Amino acid sequence: MTEFATRAVHAGQEPDATTGAVIPPIHVTSTYVQDGVGAMRNGYEYSRGGNPTRDALQTLLADLDGGVAAYSFASGLAAEDALLRAYLEPGARVVMGNDVYGGTHRLVNRLHVPWGVELVVVDMSDVDRVRAALEGAPAKTVLWVETPTNPLMKIADIALLSEVGHAAGALVVVDNTFASPYLQQPLSLGADAVSYSTTKYLGGHSDVVGGAVVLRDEAFAEQVGFLQFGAGAIASPFDAFLTTRGIKTLPVRMERHSSNAQAVAEALVSAPGVERVYYPGLSDHPGHEVAAKQMRGFGGMLSVALTGGPEAAKRFVESTEVFTLAESLGGVESLIGYPSEMTHASVKGTELAVPENVVRLSVGIEDQGDLVADVLQALSR
Prior knowledge:
The structure is a single chain. The protein is of the alpha/beta class. The chain folds into two domains: 4-247, Type I PLP-dependent aspartate aminotransferase-like (Major domain) (Aspartate Aminotransferase, domain 2); 251-380, Aspartate Aminotransferase, domain 1 (Alpha-Beta Complex), CATH 3.90.1150.10. The protein has helices spanning 4-10, 52-65, 76-87, 102-112, 127-134, 158-167, 180-183, 218-231, 237-247, 250-269, 288-294, 309-317, 368-380, and strands at residues 69-73, 93-97, 118-122, 141-146, 171-175, 193-197, 211-215, 274-278, 301-306, 324-325, 335-337, 358-362. Strands 1-7-6-5-4-2-3 form a seven-stranded mixed sheet, with helices on both faces. The protein has a five-stranded mixed sheet with strand order 8-9-12-11-10. α7 links the parallel β5 (171-175) and β6 (193-197). The longest helix is centred in the last third of the chain and has 20 residues, at 250-269. It is globular.
């Protein structure tokens, strides 16, 4: 099996050996019988250390991203934290983009910086500034790349930044949450690790919270695996099952998300009251060519800046009928949010602050005409 859609359905999903069930059972056990002291069956001892349902998801994730191993966690931030703690030490440096998920910045700035880690924020689309930020980097340095970014949809050249990061001795990590492994393959472009909030497109149905990391190096993968076991922020069996079920339809969903988002973006570009549309699928987007080179499609996320300022933005998000005002993204239903006071409230007043006239849309898989009509009627209000 070599094609993505086939692997999304079958990787790690062997029918149950006992019953022949096409869908493997959910193993909700906390512990496992031993046939003698230390004589474990298939290596299973206690579910913090290993669980067949979680293992199946991890096998699937590693397969789809082309990694040697993957680990699933209770949330995207738990996954990011384990990845960072497995690599960093006091005196280390994290170079991060100036437009990233607010929770990622908060994690490093509020938890890792007090531990002795230096945080440097830079525009990842400016390679010269990235090089400058990596000059004199300590032995333990992480180049944290998010592309497309949240919420201003900036695009970073993964292959180029991987070269720049490796030349400086840095570990290159790509947050691939917005794109998903179907649209973008960071490991094949040179990255060392990929992180996900599996809550988003991988789960895809707004019914599970989770995170994952996928690694290309076996030695580092073992370190992350130990953090998963030692700290214990694991995905539960049921959450792992829901995520696996969601991934089976990832390719068809991402195609629909992308085509719907393209239509909404194009409709908003010429709509009255719109100052700017942030979507890499638009030909005038500054990262359009790079995105077209490294992505299979442009995804379901876009943002829009309104000429009427904060008040217009708030009225807009409160006036949609198909789009639901809520945090999060990547579900089959369309969501809309006001980042500066919702998803990115933690970076308000910092260099990562989101403009107060910006609205973020997670375009779902509903009828395209209904979605376009909804944003236009909301603007008219």
